[in-house]
Write a structure and sequence with these properties.
about 270 residues, alpha/beta, Rossmann fold, about 35% helix, globular, binds nicotinamide-adenine-dinucleotide
């Protein structure tokens, strides 16, 4: 676990990335003294793959979750979605004490975090990232927001989560595309700021577990935010992440080698 701190703002919150955490979210929230009524925001795909484990953990710990599942993907990152969320919460009589739990990728954490920032001028929220990109970047750092017709992320706020709980085993169900786009972000940070990340990726891609026939998701695996990272979460990679076996298959080694060869990072939109 690392603690994220933001200079000048006196903000400090834990970022835990551990295999099996999804099953322990309920007790962790109870330890954080979260109120019993909680608002879960997720997307339909994530709900299908991981909703049951997540909601069971909450209910076992005595929470009463109310769930809204967005259509998956970037098309949900709109002001209309934020408004719809807030109107549903109003209809449910949600007050300022009720926390939001964002279970999903960067789209879910951006939308749910922004709705949490705006509703009654600020609800507490917790991020439970389920993509590589969200565990390494989007769920950490407090940037939340939506797109406008004129451009990406044009409407937003800084609203830090109370805590981030990421479970790398959720990455096993990611599509190759979503998996690769998360890795690309990590490679980008490696190129821009921390070349040792490229070494980590190459080492993992070349390791034993990349060979066919070996188990793909070893139990002790994890991706964790880098110990040195501050307000912005920069991914560091620990031995045996569950997705280690996918690194070769999904072209990570080629990507890091291209990056080392001097290719500039793609000009994709900033998170
Ligand atoms: N706020 C920030 O600091 C920040 C930083 C970087 C990126 N972003 C934003 O993040 C967004 C992209 O995030 P993303 O790549 O996580 O995309 P995403 O949230 O759209 O997820 C990608 C796809 O994977 C599916 N998915 C998510 N978790 C899954 C799982 N465990 N198993 C199976 N399917 C799963 C989703 O349903 C979706 O279809 C962009 O909108 C970008 O602007 C924000």
């Amino acid at each position: 676990m690392i603690r994220v701190s933001a200079a000048r703002a006196r903000i400090l919150y834990p970022v835990r990335i551990e295999t099996g955490l999804l099953r322990r979210v309920g007790p962790l929230l109870r330890a954080a003294r979260a109120p019993r009524d909680v608002l879960v925001v997720t997307d339909r795909t994530v709900l299908r793959f991981h909703g049951a484990v997540f909601l069971a953990s909450l209910r076992r710990a005595g929470f009463r979750p109310r769930v809204i599942a967005l259509p998956p993907g970037e098309r949900s990152k709109t002001l209309a979605r934020v408004r719809a969320l807030c109107e549903r919460w109003t209809a449910w009589g949600v007050d300022r004490a009720t926390p939001v739990l964002a279970l999903g990728g960067g789209v879910v954490s951006d939308v749910a975090g922004f709705a949490a920032a705006a509703y009654t001028r600020g609800l507490d929220w917790y991020a439970v990232p389920t993509t590589v990109l969200a565990q390494a970047d989007a769920a950490i750092g407090g940037k939340v927001g939506v797109n406008l017709p004129g451009g990406k992320n044009l409407l937003g706020a800084f609203h830090h989560p109370r805590a981030v709980f990421g479970d790398p085993s959720t990455l096993a169900t990611l599509s190759p595309r979503a998996f690769r786009s998360g890795l690309a972000e990590i490679v980008k940070i490696g190129v821009i700021r921390k070349p040792s990340i490229l070494d980590d990726l190459e080492r993992l891609a070349g390791g034993d577990l990349a060979r066919p026939g070996r188990p793909r998701h070893p139990p002790r695996a994890q991706l964790r935010p880098h110990g040195g990272a501050r307000a912005r979460g920069v991914a560091g990679i620990r031995a045996d992440p569950p997705w280690r076996g996918r690194l070769d298959r999904d072209g990570c080694r080629a990507a890091t080698q291209r990056a080392r060869g001097g290719a500039s990072p793609s000009p994709g939109a900033r998170g």
